[in-house]
Each structure stands twice: as C-alpha cells, then as structure tokens.
Write a sequence for this structure.
C-alpha cells in the first residue's frame, strides 16, 4: 500500500502543478511525456544490453528505461521552452480544469513508466507490501502466476496499455513494424515483481548479458511429460536448448540459477495485437557423474541450476505449446535477454536425443607438442595464505573479500613478505571455494616442458592474434566438463600480484606477460569438485577448444 500511495500522490501532485501552469503548458508537457516514453521504449533494449554487458545486469534494464525517459523528457522540455516561450490565454476556470486533466495524464504515464523501470532493479520480490505478480504457492502445479491486485498496478497497466496502443501507429518503437505488445508482451506482469522472481527471496541475479548465452536451439517436441503429477498425460511442447557461460552465473561465478519466471517463449503475435507467452514447466540438464535427467518446476523452490564448479551450464527448457494459443515462437527470453528464435528442428526423444553435456576432449583439437603436466598441479588447503606473501585484510587494496577473508574479486600488488606476522583472523585466505570443491593450483610459469599458454611455447597463440588472447583457460574432466581459472598469483621475487576474476573466466589477455626464461613464478587457480578425474588443460577459443597440455589426476575429495 505504501508504494501505491506514493505513486497516486505523485500523480495528484503532477496534476496540481500543471493545473496551475495552465492548459496549454500542460498539453505541451503531455506531448513531451508521450514522445519521451515512446523513445524510451524504442531504445530500451539496445541501451539495456550495452549496460548489462558492462556488469550492471541487476539494474541494466531499469536504468536504461528510466534514464532514457528522464533524459529525453528533459531535452524535449528544454527545446519546447525555447521554441514556445509564451502561454495561451484562456478563461482561468478552463485553464485549471483542462490543465489538471492534461497534468493527470502526464502523471499517470510518468509514474507508470517509473514503476515499470523500478521493476527491473535488483530487489526482493516484495518491496514494503508491494508484490504485484508472483508465482502462487497455493496451487498444485507450478508455475501459476497471480496478482495481489495492488492499486499501483492500475498505473502500470494504463501506461503499458497506452504505449502498446500507440506503438501500432506513428510511435512504433521498433523498426520493421514490431510493437510493444509483440516484443515485450505482459509488461505489467513482468515488471510488477515477476521479473524479480529468483532465489534468495528475489535477490538472485535477475538479468544476464546476452553474450553469456550460446548454442540457442528451438526444438519441436511432439509429446513429453511436463509435470510430475500422477496420471498426467504427455503433451506437445517447445524445447529451448542453450548453454550459459560462467559470466552469467550467480554468486560471483559460482553457479547458474534459473526460476520458472525467468525464461519464456514469445509468440509471433499473429491473430491478435499482442503476442502470447509460454513459461517453462520442466527442464532437462546434465547431472554430476554424467547423463541427463528431467526436472519439473512443480514448486516455487525448484530452480534450474548448473553443476557446481563447472564453468558452463547447458539446459533444455520445456514450454507447453498450448500456452502460445496457436502462435509460433518468435522470441526466446532468458533472464531478461531476448533472442530471436531460430528455426525449429524436430527433437525426438528429449532425454535420449538432445545432448546438453559440454564438449569433451574428443571434440577439441590436440596440440602436436602437448605434454603432461601432472607434476605441476597441487591441491592445497583453501585456507592457505597467498603463496609468496602474507596479506593483512586491512591492507587488501583492490582485492574484494568475503566475510571469511577469502578472495572473491579484484586485484592488487603486494610486497613479498612471507615472514610477516598477521593474526589468523586478519589474514587474507585463498580464492573462495564452496565446501564440496577443491582448489587446483597450477604452476604455469613460462618454462620449456611446462604449461603451453605463452607465445614462446605455442605457435597457435603466436599466430591466432585476438582469438588466442580471448581464449579462456580451463581444465577439463573425463566427462568433458570445463572448470575455468578463477584467479592467478604472480611472484617476481620482490612483488606478488594477486588477481581474482570475480566469477568471470580467466582469458589469456588477463595473464601478465611471461617471456620464456623470465624467472617469474605464476600460479593459476581453478575451482574443481572433489572426486572428478582431470584430463587436460584447454584453451576455449571461438573456433573451438584446443588441448595444450594433458593431465591424468584424480581430484581428492574434501575432508
């Protein structure tokens, strides 16, 4: 009720302001609001994706919409004030009444657009007492969505409906004839809390940069069970297969999490002004130890999750065809990122015919001079002090630490002072790992017979240019799962440089230059689950994976 009261009070205040300003000024302002809103929706996604690619995934869409609207409105108001400096004189009573009506319209559209924008900011599902739309817990089969009928939804509905109607005419916000109803359907439902439906009461990641999604496929499934209810008949479904990179994971690169509200298939809008929408009822993914398994969004607590420690996650989401009401898929939306749906292909048996496992070594190119590097690998206690120096958490510089002083991001250079006395409570630990994981520390200094990730040791790196520099460094287990490097430590004898990727995979360009024979020590750190068998060190490049060194080690389980 608090947010609704604030919203309606804002509308009344805007109406009062413009009733005093006069009908003509209020009309000019209303036209500016309409134009600014149309431009904001038109530029929303391009600006939002650019912001999200720069790490502001939790606020990118909200910032893009609200920011574009406010800036455009300010510019339009400045221009109109200069071009039309004088007001029109009409009877005072009409000035007040008509100005108030125009002001109220401006208030509804402005406040409604701001409320839509706020729906795309990272927050809990419920803010004060405002929930809006959410998955219901009182129905046997999820996801079923419902509304708390908060009064503020009326402003969001009016704003969304107005700009949707307007986008069919001269204010079409997308080139090529698309409308708000075909490109962003159910805007009220999505922006009014449903967009924030994630783990940790909504504080999980709500947005993802489009570049983190790859391998997008649309599959036509004739018959599949979409819920786990006894006696439930199989039905036709659309299946969406995709792979998400570690850049798109939650928890600083720990794991990918996806609720039933964070993915949808959008219809083509044919047969009506608005596109229809389908949400997933089930999903298929690889499981630890190999193989595929089907799961169901049969509870609000059921979320699709990547296998812990793996640097990529692959999934197949299953959407009921009936929800699209005869429309064909045109767009696929995953955590706020919208993609044009590829041409559909027959799926066959989802569990048997669709592979979601990561590419194995069999699909990677083996370097001719690849050597075994087992002797260069160790599995240290994760609570060890950073090799070469002891760091006081009060002097961490640019490093980011969790509550236990484990490194989760940032970088900093420290003097080598291995004899320094620092209490256990203040000492910076190693790179953060979860309880079931181990740190794999690789001695990657540039020496002959060692790790082949430097130009002096690998001809492909010398000749591949930008592709090689963008290649991600990973160790691969016997099932083909990749575990990307999460940080590095470089020691030149006087200084120790510590760098954490903060959840993003380490690329060759992130590694300090190491000429052959430089004498510098370099250690790469990987998070790997206990009990797996590591088989190779690869460079994951755009043209495919390259095995640069072989490994034959079993990762010891955590005590």
């Amino acid at each position: 009720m608090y947010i609704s009261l604030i919203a309606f009070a804002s509308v009344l205040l805007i109406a009062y302001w413009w009733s005093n300003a006069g009908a003509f000024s209020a009309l000019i302002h209303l036209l500016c609001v309409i134009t600014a809103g149309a431009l904001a929706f038109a530029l929303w996604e391009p600006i939002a994706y650019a912001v999200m690619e720069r790490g502001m995934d939790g606020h990118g869409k909200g910032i893009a919409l609200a920011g574009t609207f406010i800036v455009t409105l300010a510019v339009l108001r400045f221009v109109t004030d200069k071009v039309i400096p004088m007001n029109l004189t009409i009877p005072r009573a009409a000035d007040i009444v008509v100005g108030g009506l125009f002001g109220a319209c401006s208030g509804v559209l402005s406040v409604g657009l701001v409320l839509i924008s706020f729906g795309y900011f990272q927050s809990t599902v419920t803010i004060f007492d405002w929930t809006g739309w959410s998955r219901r817990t009182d129905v046997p089969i999820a996801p079923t969505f419902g509304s708390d009928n908060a009064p503020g939804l009326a402003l969001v509905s009016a704003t969304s409906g107005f700009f949707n109607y307007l986008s069919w005419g001269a204010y079409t916000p997308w080139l090529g004839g698309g409308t708000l109803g075909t490109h962003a359907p159910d805007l009220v439902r999505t922006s009014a809390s449903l967009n924030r439906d994630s783990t940790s009461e909504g504080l999980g990641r709500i947005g993802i940069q489009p570049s983190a999604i790859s391998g997008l496929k649309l599959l036509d499934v004739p018959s599949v069970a979409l819920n786990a209810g006894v006696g439930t008949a199989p039905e036709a479904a659309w299946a969406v297969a995709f792979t998400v990179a570690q850049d798109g994971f939650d928890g600083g690169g720990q794991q990918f999490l996806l609720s039933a509200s964070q993915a949808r298939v959008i219809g083509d809008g044919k047969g009506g002004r608005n596109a229809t929408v389908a949400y997933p009822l089930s999903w298929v993914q690889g499981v630890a130890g190999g193989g595929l398994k089907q799961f169901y969004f049969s509870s609000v607590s059921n979320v699709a999750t990547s296998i812990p420690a793996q640097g990529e996650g692959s999934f197949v989401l299953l959407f009921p065809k009936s929800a699209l009401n005869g429309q064909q898929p045109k767009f696929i939306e995953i955590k706020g990122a919208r993609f044009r749906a590829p041409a559909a292909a027959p799926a066959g048996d989802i569990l048997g015919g669709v592979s979601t496992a990561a590419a194995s070594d069999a699909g990677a190119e083996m370097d001719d001079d690849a050597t075994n590097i087992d002797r260069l690998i160790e599995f240290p206690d994760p609570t060890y002090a950073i090799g070469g120096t002891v760091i006081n958490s009060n002097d961490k510089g640019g490093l980011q630490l969790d509550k236990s002083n484990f490194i989760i991001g940032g970088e900093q250079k420290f003097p080598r002072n291995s004899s320094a006395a620092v209490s256990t409570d203040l000492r910076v630990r190693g790179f953060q790992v979860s309880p079931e994981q181990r740190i794999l520390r690789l001695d990657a200094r540039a020496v002959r017979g060692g790790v082949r990730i430097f130009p002096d040791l690998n001809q492909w790196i010398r000749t591949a240019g930008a592709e090689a520099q963008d290649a991600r460094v990973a160790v691969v287990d016997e099932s083909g799962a990749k575990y990307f490097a999460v940080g590095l430590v470089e020691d030149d004898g006087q200084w120790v440089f510590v760098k954490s990727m903060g959840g993003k995979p380490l690329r060759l360009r992130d590694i300090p230059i190491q000429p052959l024979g430089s004498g510098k020590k370099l250690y790469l750190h990987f998070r790997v689950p206990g009990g797996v068998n590591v088989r190779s060190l690869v460079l994951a490049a755009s043209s495919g994976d390259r095995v640069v060194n072989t490994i034959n080690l079993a990762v010891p389980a955590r005590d």
User: Anything to note?
Assistant: Residues 455 and 461 are 5 Å apart (CA to CA). The first helix runs from residue 2 to 21.
